[in-house]
Amino acid sequence: MSENKEPQVASEPQGQKFVYDFTEGNRNLKDLLGGKGANLAEMTNLGLPVPPGFTITTEACKVYLDSGEAPDALRDEVSAHLEALEQKMGKKLGQADNPLLVSVRSGAKFSMPGMMDTVLNIGLSDKSVTGLAQQAGGDERFAWDSYRRLIQMFGKTVLGVDGELFEEALEQAKAAKKVTVDTDLEAADLKKLVRKFKKIVSEQAGRDFPQDPREQMDLAINAVFDSWNTDRAKLYRRQERIPGDLGTAVNVCSMVFGNLGPDSGTGVAFTRDPASGHQGVYGDYLQNAQGEDVVAGIRNTVPLADLERIDKASYDQLMQIMETLETHYKDLCDIEFTIERGQLWMLQTRVGKRTAGAAFRIATQLVDQGLIDEAEALQRVNGAQLAQLMFPRFDEEAKTEKLGRGIAASPGAAVGKAVFDSYTAVKWSRSGEKVILIRRETNPDDLDGMIAAEGILTSRGGKTSHAAVVARGMGKTCVCGAEEIEVDTKRRRMTAPGGIVVEEGDVVSIDGSTGKVYLGEVPVVPSPVVEYFEGRMHAGADDADELVAAVHRIMAYADRVRRLRVRANADNAEDALRARRFGAQGIGLCRTEHMFLGERRGLVERLILADTDDEREEALGALLPLQKADFIELFESMDGLPVTVRLLDPPLHEFLPDITELSVRVALAESRKDANENDLRLLQAVHKLHEQNPMLGLRGVRLGLVIPGLFAMQVRAIAEAAAHRKNAKGDPRAEIMIPLVGTVQELEIVREEADQVIAEVEAATGTKLKLTIGTMIELPRAALTAGQIAEAAQFFSFGTNDLTQTVWGFSRDDVEASFFTAYLEKGIFGVSPFETIDRDGVGALVRSAVEAGRATRPDLKLGVCGEHGGDPESVHFFHEVGLDYVSCSPFRIPVARLEAGRAAAQSTGSDSR
């Protein structure tokens, strides 16, 4: 969905409600209240301790973004809800002697951690800061710390001041005091810092920091609306495929303070470990801090378990609330909380992001606990997560040089060159380098680099830091909080214990499953999940086997419920056997051109250079036994399962030498007067076959019609191989596929010849064969005339690679390198149409061809063999339109099986509802 919209005047519906109190909503109103607002309302309904507040709807945001102004009714609604909040709290926003302070936080329907804006402590001013100190029992340090935080966040978020200026001023203040942490600054130091911050705002923003609390709140609300369309938010949405027209809600919540001293603090908790899925006490806590300190990773936290020692009453209450929330949501919950002088407050909950392994473990755990059924467990995982679990891992037996160890935040084995800023990560990645992004801590501005990197390493922060949360969401390997490693971003280096220095460009390896960091490249070994699919590992007691057991259970259920069968794209017996181990139910695409490469290329050259019928028949005769032997092996490896063999498809020039290299070779030989006759004939043939656009030239069915005997030889090889297997008591199920058909007449001519050849083989071998003949639908005309083509075809296989090229007018090999990046960045594509099927264009042709083909031939078998056959989202589309099977590369087969099961379970659920 496009991120770029032309401004337009939005019509404001009469009587539309734009503001909801926390007591008015519930978790089912995420479209309207955003995830954060809906869940704050849900927790309020559950009677949990939530600070009072209200939510401004996503509809208000849409009006603002479309028209450039907030809805007329919004100000009055906010005023009414603010007045009610003030009465409830017994104090007024920004009042000098008894100020109410609020936070203004974003909250879209889908979680976008750190991508949009938040401002805390709204309502503080030169006058009310004294009143806040009085509220806190005379704690001036707390009041001035809160004030400097407001100016810093407001200046950066609302007024667009460079955040580094505030950070530099803060570092200077600590240096002057000779301290290293913020909490060691006293009230007098913070007063000076506030004056410095206000000066920075005045100089950089061209205006003074606003002293009117309502102006602060209104500007902050607009800033949160605007943050929906920041570059980082757009990039994150494209990465996560979140629609660009949803807008964000805004949550205005009365402030509670975790920075009131050692009996206060803030934290983030998970009801289960988001990295492994194991049950236990997981999270981070930071005394005397506000929430942004934990998420930003600026100060290193203590494990959540330490809270039991620090404040047992709050710890016990939190554990009870976490159990309540997980039972209520029936899923892993991610929780933000603050303790204000011994009083626990819940600031947020959401279904937590998790690693791929955790997703599978948690889904099966919840089934065992009776919270969800198998159908729901299947919806809790996806093919992208399964694909992550199939990536290799580091070899534990390899010799390594350990640099340090941090927190295992997001698993995986990542190797790359060390880079210390996002710009370099993107630049090097685009040049083909694999990189590891190394930072003290990441922030939303690092998103570009995080996407480009193989993995992320930080020296600060924990499992709930920005780096950890975003990395888990993207499936990136991440190690956080490697405190023993000193990261120097200015000098572009990091220093490990023992004085080991890693400069930018040096190769490092990070293990997101253990938190270990190594110097150099560590070798990898296959994933245990791949070993399971290949039959080399079974479920047992250790951690890897526990994961395998979870995968096994969910895959077994997916296989039971799915309607789509899954085949493999495989061209030889080795790939076919691997595919069968991975669960393939046949071969959906055997590319015969791959059988003509290597040593056999010379035979194809002889065919191309043949001047007479005898020469051509001699070349075809030499190719026939080789093709037959290949097919015998293939049919044996897939015995009892269908094997779809595509006759020769690519242009013949692909089997000849490169025209430039051959021209140079001939020219040099002629200059030496020792020209090779065969090279001269080859060059002549290359020139003869040269086409301006060979992908739209003499290829596919056109070859079979123009080169006598070519397709007949291939059909004979298939038929003789099938007869051989049948006579050997095998069960060959060959299907012959004619490529690039555009009209039924082409197919009829080739099929007539094929039927004749099959009859000859049956007579010669005395074996009755059941060979079906069909075609690829890969041209728009074929899709549009599918009803006619079905009269001569027993099956269709959609070649969505070529169909995408011809529908869009794209040459895949050219456009992906030339302008696809720009199209993705501009939001024209949410994802490449070669990666996920274009439902509106290519998909519409597939759907119409299915309907027309089945109208002509009700028993028409339908499949897809393009790259989309292994793409999770595309598999759901193929289920919807009624295909019989998808075909994909062997390693994508488990993904396709899983997604076919999820598609069936979803459609069953939709029907039942």
From TrEMBL:
Q: Where is the Pyruvate phosphate dikinase AMP/ATP-binding domain?
A: 69-300, 308-357
What keywords were assigned to this record? ATP-binding, Kinase, Magnesium, Metal-binding, Nucleotide-binding, Pyruvate, Transferase
EC number(s) in its UniProt entry? 2.7.9.1
Xref: PROSITE patterns:
PEP_ENZYMES_PHOS_SITE (PS00370)
The top EC class is transferase
Per UniProt, residues of the PEP-utilising enzyme C-terminal domain are: 549-900
The name under which this protein is listed is Pyruvate, phosphate dikinase
The organism named in the record is Streptomyces enissocaesilis
Q: What is the lineage of its organism?
A: Bacteria, Bacillati, Actinomycetota, Actinomycetes, Kitasatosporales
